[in-house]
Amino acid sequence: MAAGGTKSGGAKNGLAHRNKPVPKKAEAKSLKRKRGQEDLGKLKEAVEQLDPKSPDIKQFTDLPLCEATASGLRASHFEVLTDVQRAAIPLALKGNDVLGAAKTGSGKTLAFLVPVLEKLYHAKWTEYDGLGALIISPTRELAVQIFEVLRKIGRNHYFSAGLVIGGKSLKEEAERLGRMNILVCTPGRMLQHLDQTAGFDVNNLQILVLDEADRIMDMGFQSAVDALVEHLPRTRQTLLFSATQSKRVSDLARLSLKDPEYVSAHEAAVSATPTNLQQSYIVTPLAEKLDTLWGFLRTNLKSKIIVFFSSGKQVRFVFESFKRMQPGIPLLHLHGRQKQVARMEITSRFSSAKYGCLFATDVVARGVDFPAVDWVIQADCPEDADTYIHRVGRTARYESKGRAVLFLEPSEEEGFLKRLEQKKVPIQKVNVRENKKKSIKNELQSYNFQSADLKYLGQKAFISYTRSIYLQKDKEVFKFKELDLDGFAESLGLAGTPQIKYHKGEDIKRLKNASRAAISSGSESDSDGEGGKRKKDKDQVRTKYQKMAERQNQDVLSSHYRKILGDDGQATSDNQDDDDDDFLSVKRVLADDAQLDAAAGTDNPTTTEPRVIKLGNSELIIDSNRREKLLKSKKKLLKYMDKGSKLVFDDDGNARPVYELQDEDDFAQEGPADRLRRQFVAAETEKVAEADLADKQAAKLRRREKRERQKARERGEEAAEREGALQLDGDEGGDPLALLRSLPIAGDDGGDGSGEEEGEREPPRKKARKWFQDDSEQEEEERRKKKKGGKRVIEMAEEPDNLEDLEALAAGLLED
Ligand SMILES: Nc1ncnc2c1ncn2[C@@H]1O[C@H](COP(=O)(O)OP(=O)(O)OP(=O)(O)O)[C@@H](O)[C@H]1O
Questions:
Q1: 242 and 141 within one domain
Q2: Domain presence at residue 489
Q3: ipTM for this model
Q4: pLDDT tens digits, 370-384
Q5: Whose CA is nearest to atom 5 of ligand 1?
Q6: For residues 742 and 737, what is the distance between their CA atoms, to the nearest angstrom?
Q7: Do 248 and 322 sit in the same domain of this protein?
Q8: Which domain holds residue 811?
Q9: Does the C-beta of 138 come closer than 6 Å to ligand 1?
């Protein structure tokens, strides 16, 4: 089997018949051809005579397989057939369309790969015949895995095989496509090639396989698969496999199956899940989910664990925060928005790990065959019982044992247990030991506080989870209104509960109709190129802020840029989070509480009644606790206060409202302009006359005061001279700043700056220094200075406005 596509070159490396003796080249060739024809004739005959229901078929050697396939199986240590292989391979070898259903880990991959190889062998397929078989997988991880198994068992065939899953340039893949006989692909990427790669011919296709067929046929892939099938020839064999196979007639019609054989290997089984799988569930309130998970990990450090969440955002947040808390078990995370190389590396690291915990989305829920997984934890309730079955199927594979635990929110318990019962899933309730319970809320809070990026992830995790619950179709299980959103936000270490807002529009309809898996892996598969649904318009011109906003989770500012973009249509659709597209947004809690009050028309913000915000078709209930918290925050309360009106100061320093030009009509109504002008001039003249009078009186008063003060001072000096006890300036010495600080600040008394009121006199000893001087005082000061000599006087050139000015001024004086 030659491997090509995205993996390696397309050169043939088949080993079959290589060591046979070669007497003469031409002779040997014709002999070989003849023998080959004889063998093939016999093989076809054996297949025709094969009884597909024969109880004698137990091993691969009991099947009429070509030597290349048989030896490949032997070399890969596959000998005994599993139930589904025993039932499906004979029917497929005989050319039937097959709908295969069997439990997880029961060997469905070989059940379709063996017929694929045989089909092309029987048709004597060569590289010049083009594409003979197409195998479609819903995820890249599964496609890679199928490709690896194909390489193993097909090692002795001469076919070329390729992997088409994206993650590489389309051109690079396209160059090799034409040479491939077997392709393993994801739907979106394959469709891209069929639409865009010139000369890629699929008209000869012999066999089409859909692994996880129910998933590929459901809404997430509907349009891609339908378009893809349109390119394929109608005359072909089709094989569909899944652990949760449906016989939906509409699906069969879409794929134009001809009298398909339904193979259900475990139809009569008591349970839909492997018998060696032990399943249990824990009822854990949403607000305690992470505590429970943390406790679980801490008590299972020597295990290999997969933890499923409903969204990549949840995966990222839990991974990043638990990593900081160092649980003592290696942590990995996997979701659809990671780069292809990272996804491959994480998958292979987890495969080869002995112990470790992988946080993952449903991107690895189906088909992926991680060896020796001990536990599957479903931290978020799956959207339906089928998803549950696939998730738990990552453990207890083939003949190994495994355990699975489902976390259920109290509101989900009854409804989901009913769904599991309907699907024949046996599960028992367990409780967490009291001594193992530990709240990690505070630690998360502190990590969120330290890292804005982590906090951002927490908010996103909150939104993506609540959104997924809101969108669930099965309202008997998922009861959005019963969720403790505040508690959940707190458990993620968030300081407040992000407000959830539902946008109106077509997209909501689409999201609502789609299943949760379709949403999460649909968006994931976009980045993977798997879904092929949502592609950014590359030609669209985007602003700097839009580009910044798209760089989510890279730094704290990305959210800031998104805010800048505002609410206009274009920007909004770009700035919303990739898999939160057009749906929910974080808003400040306070704003809405305020709006809420306004909407409710209440004057009493302390009411303890829960509040209800209308959100499109739904309601968000905000309880009284949040409101009380809100009222304690002064900053937030500012929002409730009157914002005030704008004032401007005129030349005299008087505040007055901002002048606004009067409307022309209003002005005309007041009368003729000439009369108004005269009235205005008269009023202003009167005002000026009044002001003039007041000024004159004030000046007169000041002059009189001045005279009186001068007289009083002269009287005082005469008395002091008489007593020989004159107060000297600067006697205190020391730090002039200290002195200045002890003085009254200019204007404090509202008077003329003297710091004195009429008639008041400080006692002579306390009056160490006055710092304002009027003209007469200044003259007097100078006179005294001359008289005493050598004494320093602090001169105040200007009236300082405040203490800083005084200090600066004093410092300047000191330098002098
Ligand atoms: N005949 C066989 N003998 C031994 N091991 C086998 C045989 N067939 C399959 N296996 C092993 O069983 C495991 C599960 O096989 P496979 O991945 O094909 O299961 P599946 O039915 O496709 O599971 P899922 O439903 O999860 O996709 C693999 O590790 C595979 O190697």
A1: yes
A2: yes
A3: 0.99
A4: 999 999 999 999 999
A5: 78
A6: 9
A7: no
A8: 769-816
A9: no
